[in-house]
C-alpha cells in the first residue's frame, strides 16, 4: 500500500478548504459475487463538486481503469491510494469526475466483505468503512467533513435483498439470458448530506422481518418510519425479532422526545452480519451489528442488556455522529462518548434494563481505567495526525472514559440543562461537521456555566484521578471526613486536580436485625449519602461531622464521577468480611471495581482478590458483575499471581466454579455464568477435564447446552490435551455452521503440540490465509496460557517479524497479530527488577532500534510492554 494511503489531518484540512462536494453516484456490479473465483467487482463513481483550486485528489484503494474529468478522458494518475485530479474548473462552476475500476472483495471485514455460508452455500455481502474504508469500494473524498448526497446503484442476483442508507427509488429486473442469470438493479434514493464513511451497502439472501414505528411531529403530522431486521437465512430461527423491535421502538420514542429533532434518515434497518470486526456501526438507516447478537445459545439477562445498550448506542448516533459529525478524528469522542452515555441513559429511561449503569460501572469503566493508565493514553480530545492514529483511537478513552466524563458533566450542570444544550447543538449544526468548541458553546448557553476550565482539565488532559476517604474519629463519631485527590497527566507529567460533583456513601453492618424469624442475615446498608463538590487535593465533607463512625465509606457512591477509588483500611476490612452482604448492586459493583484496581496496581495481593471472589462471588446475583469477576479472577491467576502460587489457584478456580455450578438453581442465569467460568478455568486446570465431560454429557440438570458452551468446553479439553480429533470433528458435524467451523478451528489450534503451533504461526503470518474471524480463533488457540513452554520459542520470531506483519497485513489484522502474539504470559523472578525480565528487555531493544517504525505499531508494542510490566510488578508484590 502506498504511503499516501495514511491521509493526514493536514492534507484533509487543506483539501476541504477548497472543495464543496454536492453529490456522488456510485454504481456497484455485484452480480458476480456468488462465484468465489471472482475476486473483484466493477465499481464506477461519478462525483460533482466545486473547487477553488485546479488540482485535488480522490481516495481509491483499488484498480483504476478510467478517469473522466469534465467530459475529457484522461490518463489515470493513481499511486494505489490517490487518484490525482488536474485541470479542474476553479471558477465556481461544478466539476464532474467519473472514476471506473475494480474493487476487491474483502475477507478482513474492511471495505466490502464477502462471506459464504457453509450451511447453504449462500453468499452474503456488507460494507464496513469507518474510519476510511469506503475508498476500498468507490472513489471518494474520504474525510468526514466533506459531506455530500450519495446515490447507490447496485446490480445483484435477482433473489437477493439489497439495502443501503435510503429506500430504493427504483428496482429494475433483468431476466436471465445466455450471458447472466436473473439480475436486479437497485437504485436507491439520494441520501441527505452525509460523510462517506457512513455510507453502506448490504446484499445477499438475507432473512428479513419488517416492523414499523411512528411518532407525532411538532406540526401535527406523523413521522412514519419503516423498521427492518435482517440476518443470514440460516440464523433466522434464532432471530428474536419481537424483542429486538420492542427495544428499537422504545429507543426511537426516547430519542425523538429527548433530542426534539425528528429521526432524520427515513427508514431504520438493523442488519446482523457475519465475520464482523466490531459490535455495530451506525450507518444511517442501515445499522450493521455483529451476528453474535443473534443468540444461537442460551443468553443471560446481562447479554440481552448489553445488546439493548448497543442498539441504543447506534440509534443515538443517528443524531450524534450522523446528523452532526466530528470534523476530524480528533473529535471522535464527540460522537462515541455521547453514544456510549446515551446507550446506558436510554436503557434506564426507556427499557426494562433500568440497572444499565451497573454494567457500565463494572465493565465499561474498567476498560477506561486500564487504557488511561497506559503510557499511550491521551486526552479525550485527542491529537490524531493521520488515519492510522485514527484507527487506534476507537479505544477505552474515546468510548468509556468519555462517557463516564459526560456522566460527570450531567451531574455538574444538571440533566435538564444538558439535554437543552444537546437540542440546541442539533438545531444549530444539523447536516454539518463540528468540533469541541461547538458543543461547549451549546452546553454553556443552556447551563449558564463557564465550561472552559472544566473542559481543560477533563477533556484536554489525560489520566485517572485517585480519590480516597480519610476518616478521623471522635469516640464512636466522625470527627472529620476528608476526600483526598491525587492526579497527574501521564502525557505531560503535570499534576491535574479536577472538580468532581460526587456522593459519599456511609455504610453500616447490621447483624440479623431484619426481624425475620430464624434469619440472622448480616447486611451492609447505606446509612447516609452526602453530596459534595470535591476540588483540589483535600476536601472536607462537612455534613459527615458528628455522624456515627461507618463500617465502610464509599467515595463516588452512585458512580457520578470518573476516578479510581481507594478503600481506607477500615473499609477494606469491612469489604473483606461483608462485601456479599452489601444489598445494593451498584455500590457492590463499585467496591469490586476498587478492589480490582488495587490488584492491578499491586496494592492488593492477587491472592487476596481471588479469595474475595471465592468468598463473595457465590452470592453475586448480577450476572454482568459475576461474569466480570470470574474473568478478572482468570486474569489475576495468569498475570498477577506469582508463578509458585499459580497451579494451586488454577485448581481452586475450576473447583470453585464446579461447586457453584452444582449449587446454582437449574436453568438460571447464574448457573450458566458458572458453567462458562468452569469451561474457561479448565483450560489451565487439566484435572477438571472429567467434569467438563460430565457437563457435555448433559449431567448438570437444567443447564442449557447450546453450541457456545459446548465449544468452549471442547476448546478447554483440547488445550489440556484431552480431546481427540475425532471428537472435535464430531462436534463440528453436530454444529455444521459458520460459527461451528470457527470454533472448531480454535479447538484444533488449542491442542498442545509443537507442530500445531508451528502451523498456526505460519497461517497467521501469511497475508490473506485466514479471514478476520479465523485469525481470532487461531490466535486464541495459539496463545493458550497453559502452553507457555510451547510458545516460548516464538518470542524472538515475534520481534523479528513485527515490521513485516505491519507492512503485509491490513491494519485491522496487523493490530490483532501484534497484540495477540506478544509473549504476555511471563513470570517475575523474586528479587529481580521486573524491567530486567528478558522479554521486557527484548521489547525495549526493539523499540530502541525501531524509532522509525510506524507510530501505530510502536503504540501497540509500548502498550504490550506496559501490561507485562504491570503484571510482573503485581507478581512481585504478591510474592
Ligand atoms: Zn459508536
TrEMBL record:
Its EC number is 3.4.11.2. One of its GO terms (cellular component) is membrane. GO terms for molecular function: alanyl aminopeptidase activity; metalloaminopeptidase activity; peptide binding; zinc ion binding. It catalyses: Release of an N-terminal amino acid, Xaa-|-Yaa- from a peptide, amide or arylamide. Xaa is preferably Ala, but may be most amino acids including Pro (slow action). When a terminal hydrophobic residue is followed by a prolyl residue, the two may be released as an intact Xaa-Pro dipeptide. One of its GO terms (biological process) is peptide catabolic process. The keyword Nucleus does not apply. Keywords: Aminopeptidase, Hydrolase, Metal-binding, Metalloprotease, Protease, Zinc. Residues 552-868 form the ERAP1-like C-terminal domain. Gene3D superfamilies: Neutral Protease Domain 2 (1.10.390.10), tricorn interacting facor f3 domain (2.60.40.1730). Its cofactor is Zn(2+). InterPro entries: Aminopeptidase_N-like_N (IPR045357), Aminopeptidase_N-like_N_sf (IPR042097), ERAP1-like_C_dom (IPR024571), Pept_M1_aminopeptidase (IPR012778), Peptidase_M1 (IPR001930), Peptidase_M1_aminopeptidases (IPR050344), Peptidase_M1_dom (IPR014782), Peptidase_M4/M1_CTD_sf (IPR027268). Residues 92-198 form the Aminopeptidase N-like N-terminal domain. Residues 245-456 form the Peptidase M1 membrane alanine aminopeptidase domain. Pfam families: ERAP1_C (PF11838), Peptidase_M1 (PF01433), Peptidase_M1_N (PF17900). Belongs to the peptidase M1 family. PANTHER family: PROTEASE M1 ZINC METALLOPROTEASE, PUROMYCIN-SENSITIVE AMINOPEPTIDASE-RELATED. This is Aminopeptidase N. It comes from Georgenia yuyongxinii. The gene is pepN.
Amino acid at each position: 500500500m502506498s504511503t499516501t494511503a495514511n491521509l493526514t489531518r493536514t492534507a484533509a484540512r487543506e483539501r476541504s478548504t477548497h472543495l464543496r462536494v454536492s453529490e456522488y453516484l456510485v454504481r456497484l456490479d455485484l452480480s458476480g459475487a456468488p462465484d468465489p473465483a471472482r475476486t473483484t467487482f466493477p465499481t464506477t463513481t461519478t462525483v460533482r463538486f466545486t473547487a477553488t483550486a485546479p488540482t485535488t485528489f480522490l481516495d481509491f484503494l483499488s484498480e483504476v481503469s478510467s478517469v473522466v474529468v469534465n467530459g475529457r478522458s484522461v490518463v489515470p494518475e493513481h499511486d494505489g491510494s490517490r487518484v490525482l485530479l488536474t485541470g479542474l474548473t476553479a471558477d465556481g462552476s461544478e466539476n464532474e469526475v467519473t472514476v471506473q475500476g475494480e474493487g476487491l472483495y474483502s475477507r478482513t471485514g474492511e471495505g466490502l466483505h464477502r462471506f459464504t455460508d457453509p450451511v447453504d452455500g449462500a453468499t452474503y455481502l456488507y460494507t464496513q468503512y469507518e474510519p476510511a474504508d469506503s475508498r476500498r469500494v468507490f472513489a471518494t473524498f474520504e474525510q468526514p467533513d466533506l459531506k455530500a448526497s450519495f446515490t447507490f446503484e447496485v446490480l445483484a442476483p435477482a433473489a437477493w435483498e439489497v439495502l443501503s442508507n435510503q429506500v430504493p427509488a427504483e428496482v429494475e429486473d433483468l431476466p436471465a439470458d445466455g450471458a447472466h442469470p436473473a439480475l436486479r438493479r437497485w437504485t436507491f434514493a439520494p441520501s441527505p448530506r452525509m460523510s462517506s464513511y457512513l455510507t453502506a451497502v448490504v446484499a445477499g439472501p438475507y432473512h428479513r422481518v419488517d416492523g414499523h414505528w411512528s411518532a407525532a411531529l411538532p406540526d401535527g403530522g406523523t413521522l412514519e418510519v419503516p423498521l427492518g431486521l435482517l440476518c443470514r437465512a440460516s440464523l433466522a430461527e434464532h432471530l428474536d425479532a419481537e424483542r429486538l423491535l420492542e427495544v428499537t421502538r422504545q429507543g426511537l420514542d426516547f430519542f425523538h422526545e429527548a433530542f426534539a429533532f425528528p429521526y432524520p434518515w427515513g427508514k431504520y434497518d438493523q442488519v446482523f452480519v457475519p465475520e464482523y470486526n466490531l459490535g455495530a456501526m451506525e450507518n444511517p438507516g442501515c445499522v450493521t451489528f455483529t451476528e453474535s447478537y443473534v443468540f444461537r445459545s442460551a443468553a443471560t439477562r446481562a447479554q440481552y442488556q448489553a445488546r439493548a445498550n448497543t442498539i441504543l448506542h447506534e440509534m443515538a448516533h443517528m443524531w450524534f455522529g450522523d446528523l452532526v459529525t466530528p470534523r476530524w478524528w480528533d473529535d471522535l469522542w464527540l460522537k462515541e462518548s455521547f453514544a456510549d452515555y446515551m446507550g446506558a441513559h436510554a436503557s434506564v429511561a426507556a427499557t426494562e434494563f433500568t440497572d444499565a449503569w451497573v454494567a457500565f460501572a463494572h465493565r465499561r469503566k474498567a476498560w477506561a481505567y486500564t487504557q488511561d493508565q497506559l503510557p499511550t493514553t491521551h486526552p479525550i480530545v485527542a491529537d490524531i495526525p493521520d488515519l492510522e492514529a485514527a484507527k487506534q483511537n476507537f479505544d477505552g478513552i474515546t468510548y468509556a472514559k468519555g462517557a463516564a466524563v459526560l456522566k460527570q458533566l450531567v451531574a455538574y450542570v444538571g440533566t435538564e440543562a444538558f439535554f437543552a444544550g444537546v437540542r440546541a447543538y442539533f438545531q444549530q449544526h444539523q447536516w454539518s461537521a463540528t468540533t469541541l468548541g461547538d458543543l461547549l458553546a451549546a452546553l454553556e448557553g443552556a447551563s449558564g456555566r463557564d465550561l472552559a476550565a472544566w473542559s481543560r482539565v477533563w477533556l484536554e488532559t489525560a489520566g485517572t484521578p485517585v480519590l480516597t476517604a480519610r476518616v478521623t474519629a471522635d469516640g464512636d463519631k466522625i470527627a472529620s471526613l476528608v476526600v483526598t485527590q491525587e492526579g497527574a497527566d501521564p502525557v505531560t507529567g503535570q499534576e491535574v486536580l479536577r472538580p468532581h460533583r460526587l456522593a459519599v456513601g456511609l455504610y453500616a453492618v447490621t447483624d440479623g436485625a431484619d426481624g425475620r424469624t430464624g434469619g440472622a442475615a448480616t447486611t451492609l446498608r447505606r446509612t447516609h449519602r452526602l453530596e459534595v463538590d470535591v476540588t483540589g487535593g483535600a476536601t472536607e465533607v462537612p455534613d459527615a461531622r458528628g455522624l456515627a463512625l461507618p463500617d465502610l465509606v464509599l467515595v463516588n457512591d452512585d458512580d457520578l464521577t470518573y476516578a479510581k477509588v481507594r478503600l481506607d483500611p477500615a473499609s477494606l476490612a469491612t469489604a473483606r468480611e461483608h462485601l456479599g452482604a452489601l444489598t445494593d448492586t451498584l455500590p457492590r459493583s463499585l467496591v469490586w471495581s476498587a478492589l480490582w484496581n488495587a490488584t492491578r496496581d499491586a496494592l492488593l495481593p492477587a491472592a487476596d482478590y481471588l479469595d474475595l471472589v471465592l468468598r463473595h462471588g457465590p452470592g453475586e446475583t448480577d450476572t454482568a458483575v459475576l461474569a466480570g469477576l470470574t474473568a478478572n479472577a482468570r486474569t489475576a491467576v495468569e498475570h498477577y499471581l506469582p508463578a509458585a502460587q499459580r497451579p494451586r489457584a488454577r485448581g481452586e478456580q475450576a473447583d470453585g466454579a464446579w461447586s457453584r455450578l452444582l449449587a446454582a438453581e437449574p436453568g438460571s442465569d447464574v448457573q450458566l455464568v458458572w458453567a462458562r467460568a468452569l469451561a474457561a478455568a479448565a483450560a489451565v486446570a487439566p484435572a477438571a477435564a472429567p467434569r467438563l465431560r460430565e457437563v457435555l454429557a448433559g449431567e448438570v440438570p437444567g443447564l442449557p447446552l447450546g453450541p457456545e458452551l459446548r465449544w468452549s468446553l471442547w476448546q478447554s479439553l483440547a488445550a489440556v490435551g484431552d480431546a481427540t480429533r475425532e471428537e472435535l470433528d464430531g462436534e463440528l458435524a453436530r454444529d455444521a455452521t459458520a460459527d461451528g467451523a470457527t470454533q472448531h478451528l480454535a479447538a484444533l489450534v488449542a491442542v498442545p503440540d509443537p507442530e500445531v503451533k508451528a502451523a498456526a504461526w505460519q497461517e497467521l503470518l501469511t497475508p490473506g490465509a485466514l479471514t478476520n474471524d479465523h485469525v481470532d480463533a487461531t490466535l486464541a488457540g495459539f496463545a493458550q496460557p497453559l502452553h507457555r513452554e510451547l510458545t516460548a520459542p516464538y518470542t524472538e520470531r515475534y520481534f523479528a517479524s513485527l515490521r513485516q506483519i505491519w507492512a503485509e497485513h491490513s491494519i485491522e489484522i496487523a493490530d490483532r497479530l501484534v497484540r495477540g502474539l506478544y509473549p504476555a504470559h511471563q513470570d517475575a523472578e523474586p528479587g529481580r527488577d521486573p524491567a530486567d525480565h528478558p522479554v521486557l528487555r527484548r521489547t525495549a531493544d526493539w523499540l530502541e532500534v525501531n524509532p522509525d517504525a510506524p507510530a501505530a505499531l510502536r503504540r501497540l508494542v509500548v502498550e504490550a510492554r506496559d501490561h507485562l510490566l504491570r503484571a510482573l510488578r503485581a507478581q512481585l508484590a504478591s510474592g
